[in-house]
Design a protein that fits this description.
Elements (H helix, E strand, L loop, with lengths): L7 H11 L4 E7 L2 E6 H17 L7 E5 L4 H12 L3 E5 L5 H11 L3 E4 L2 H10 L8 E4 L13 E3 H14 L3 H8 L5 E6 L9 E5 H14 L7 E3 L7 H14 L2 E4 L6 H8 L3 E3 L2 H17 L2 H22 L6 H22 L6 E4 L6 H9 L4 E7 L4 E5 L12 E2 L4 E4 L4 E5 L6 E2 L3 H7 L6 E9 L5 E6 L4 E2 L5 E2 L1 H9 L4 E7 L6 E7 L1 H10 L7 H5 L2 H18 L10 E6 L19 H7 L1 H9 L3 E9 L5 E12 L6 H6 L1
Parallel strand pairs: 1-11, 3-4, 3-5, 5-6, 6-7, 10-11, 12-13, 13-14, 25-26
Antiparallel strand pairs: 1-2, 8-9, 9-19, 14-15, 15-16, 17-18, 18-20, 20-21, 22-23, 24-25, 26-28, 27-28
Helix pairs in contact: 1-2, 2-3, 2-6, 4-5, 8-9, 11-17, 12-13, 12-14
Length: 649
């Protein structure tokens, strides 16, 4: 591709010429897929850009984008950039107050909202966002009787844009020609794990050079198909569904809704796929539940061929030598088990799949790779435009996150923190020079906040967030995320939070996975009326105890982490929830808030009590507040003598 295409509007123009009739984006609506070619998409975006100009949108203005993955919302990004503006995608499930902070901080003057739900949020905060002038909506359903003072129908605005283009035929190209490679291209707000979200300012170069390098690294092509279902406000979706799509010309597919994603996956059959570990864990949980409900013959065949896949599948995928008999049995397994299973998951055509965000369990990782699905890990950050390290083909390890991405340098500083610099390094945090200086030094090195080291094979291994790595009272290391990830490898554990910094021992909160544990309850005739009742069932505690003790046995063999074995645990009476402030919108635990909110439970874990009463405030789906109360049981867990001590004896 011509490297002169250094902005997204210029990439759009080039793709509309090179791939004029090739599908660029699809959307499923009312069960039917609608497709726009690259030339059609260019025309749609140009009409919108001209329409925005009629409303007074100008260079430097910000356009907030709020909603699920929709073609028109993606078009809004490029339309804003055509005019020298800056798109600001916002997490669609954010409550009004969270959105108000981002819009006010970014000084957003225009909003592109998906539907009535998002428009209502905008109208609720309109008076608190003095910069907000206009709200454009995609889906008009339910909005007929709304005050039109600030509201504009997307299609009507495009029509106004087409009229503007006829009167001013050279206007848009003049605007596009003013755009430069080092202009600010987008604001991407962090999830705010420890405080208010920060606005990560990215240039066109940050996104385009990084996307171009990653495309070359994995040999992505124009005939790839992806399903875009992750939040548009997340940097990963921006790279995969926008940056890489514009670089290669591949097709982006928008699902009808969150509920239809599994069906839409099967219909599209993507060749390129990204999911955080939790999605892969959920898929495996669903497979496990289905097999538990299957007949004895089907279960026996599944277990037999999965054992063959475990021994042979990864070797075949890695290009290693496999004997003829093993190859034949794997071929047979593919006909009887692996092929139908991949088809059910929608993974039949996947050529490359990535996971990132946190560690994925080796068992889960190997399960998918044994089926012939080329799942790889990467390590990234918003501030890096995603890519810091990637796994090259033939060098895939479950416990590491790969080698430095093209043009990226990675080093470990004296206190064990991972640092990097490269073309994706962010410009700055918007209106926050102090945080920018704390995160990025004068030479362009970024402090990740993650603790890690390079393994003997040259691949990076991440231990935990550097600020979360603590010490027990005896001075041994406490790495909570490492322990929690081991717990979440079990399908019946959805979330875990561990404690131990400054303490003698490690303890844990557990969230059950309602689908997996609910299926277990159904198969074992265990009646329950609520999440709280199921979570407190004695047999559920027994199930969790077995998993915790299995993790403890594993930790006992690690000389650095043997002291991290969990001595006591409890099962929380409610799921940790972003609406309650306990998780970020990308479902990362807000440790400080959890520790403050459940301090009475932590005290009980360390006091030796066998139960503890708690009254907890919760937020309902409609925004109302309420409270739930419960007396939680606390259970002791067996710990094991460290292997190092046993061997010394």
């Amino acid at each position: 591709m011509d490297n002169k295409s250094d902005t997204f509007p210029r990439l759009l123009i080039e793709n509309a010429e090179r791939f004029a009739k090739k599908p660029a984006i699809r959307e499923k609506d009312l069960g039917v897929w609608q497709t726009w070619t690259w030339s059609e998409m260019r025309d749609e975006i140009f009409a919108l850009a001209n329409g925005l100009a009629t409303l007074g949108f100008k260079r430097g203005d910000k356009l907030a984008i709020v909603g699920t993955n929709r073609p028109r919302l993606y078009w809004g990004m490029c339309a804003a950039q055509c005019l020298g503006g800056i798109p600001v995608p916002v997490y669609q499930d954010s409550v009004a107050d969270e959105i108000q902070y981002v819009l006010d901080h970014a000084e957003v003057s225009f909003v592109l909202a998906e539907d009535q739900e998002q428009v209502d949020k905008m109208l609720e905060i309109h008076d608190r966002c003095p910069n907000m002038k206009h709200i454009i909506y995609d889906d008009p359903r339910g909005l007929r009787d709304y005050d039109r003072t600030h509201l504009h129908d997307f299609a009507v605005l495009q029509e106004a844009g087409r009229k503007h283009a006829k009167v001013n035929p050279d206007f848009l190209m003049q605007e596009i020609n003013q755009c430069k490679h080092d202009d600010i291209g987008i604001f991407l707000y962090t999830s705010g794990t420890t405080g208010k979200p920060k606005g990560v300012v990215m240039t066109n170069d940050n996104i385009i050079i990084t996307a171009r390098n990653s495309v070359k690294f994995d040999n992505l092509r124009s005939d790839e198909e992806i399903l875009s279902y992750l939040p548009m406000a997340w940097v990963g979706d921006h790279i995969f569904s926008y940056g890489q799509a514009y670089i290669t010309g591949f097709c982006v597919n928008c699902p009808e809704s969150e509920a239809t994603i599994p069906t839409d996956l099967r219909e599209i059959g993507p060749t390129y796929y990204f999911a955080p570990p939790r999605v892969f864990e959920n898929i495996l949980t669903t497979v496990t539940i289905r097999m538990q409900d299957a007949g004895p013959l089907k279960q026996k065949m599944f277990n037999y061929f999965m054992a063959i896949a475990k021994e042979t599948g990864v070797k075949i995928l890695n290009g290693e030598t496999v004997e003829g008999k093993e190859k034949f049995m794997y071929w047979l397994g593919n006909i009887l088990v692996y092929g139908p299973l991949k088809n059910t998951m929608g993974f039949s055509r996947i050529r490359l799949a990535y996971t990132a965000g946190e560690a994925i369990g080796p068992e889960i990782f190997d399960f998918f790779r044994s089926l012939g699905i080329n799942v790889k890990q990467l390590y990234g950050q918003t501030e890096a435009a995603v890519f810091i390290t990637q796994q090259p083909d033939g060098e895939i390890f479950a416990d590491t996150v790969g080698v430095p991405s093209p043009d990226v340098e990675v080093k470990i500083n004296d206190n064990g923190e991972v640092m990097y610099r490269g073309p994706g390094v962010f410009h700055s945090y918007y209106k926050n020079p102090e945080s920018t200086a704390d995160t990025k030094d004068a030479e362009g090195w970024v402090f990740t906040g993650d603790a890690g080291f390079f393994a003997e094979n040259g691949h990076l291994k991440i231990i935990d967030r550097a600020k979360d790595v603590g010490k027990f009272s005896d001075g041994s290391m406490f790495a909570p995320k490492y322990i929690e990830n081991k717990l979440k490898f079990f399908p019946h554990i959805k979330e875990a939070v561990t404690f131990g910094d400054g303490r003698d021992t490690c303890t844990a909160f557990i969230n059950i996975d309602l689908e997996a544990v609910g299926n277990w309850a159904e198969r074992n005739n265990v009646a329950y009326a609520s999440y709280q009742e199921l979570a407190g069932h004695p047999d559920v505690y027994k199930m969790m105890l077995e998993s915790i003790e299995q993790v403890n046995a594993d930790l006992a063999s690690d000389p650095m982490l043997s002291h991290s074995q969990m001595h006591r645990f409890l099962i929380l009476h409610k799921e940790l929830d972003p609406d309650d402030g306990e998780l970020t919108r990308t479902r990362k635990v807000r440790r400080r808030i959890v520790a403050e909110k459940y301090a009475v439970l932590i005290d009980a874990l360390y006091s030796g009590a066998d139960s503890c009463y708690i009254n907890t405030e919760v937020t309902f789906e409609d925004g109302r507040k309420g409270a739930i109360e419960a007396t939680l049981n606390i259970s002791d867990a067996k710990t094991f003598e460290p292997v190092a001590k046993r061997e010394a004896a």
